[in-house]
Amino acid sequence: MANGKLSTLTVGEKLFLFGLIIWIVLQLSRFIAFPLINEISAGAESKAWLYPAYLDLFAAFLALPLVWAIVKRRGFLVWACTIIYLAISIVDHVGNFVTTTFVGPPSIAEGMNPYLVPVIQTALDVVFFLLLFVPRFRNLFFGVEESDGALQAEESR
Question: 116-138: string of b/e by CB count within 10 Å (b at 16+)?
């Protein structure tokens, strides 16, 4: 049920919402794009990294407002925004793969496998994206409680 109290949700529904919220909060780490953009501006990194960096900033800046909306205002618009958010995040990760393949990893990825983190992030984005279409979890956003007045009007017909 949309905007339903947490106490009325099943354990699976609570786990899904909690996992989704935690995953979106973890996107704040994508503010790492600021130093990358500075390095690009200074000429130390390829300009090919600008597009993935801007998409990272999109994900980071919109993470907290989206979390707030999921907690306080679930409904069709919040569901659609979550789907769009995850889709853009997936596109960003694909951009990271392509840029890493053709230009090489950025300096901020020194000492790590430049493909491992984007693979994990993409996998989690895809899992949550697909779960949002499962009726049980989609209904956490779409389910509408009928008010007493609406119920009485329906019964009088």
Answer: eebeebbebbeebbeebeeeebe
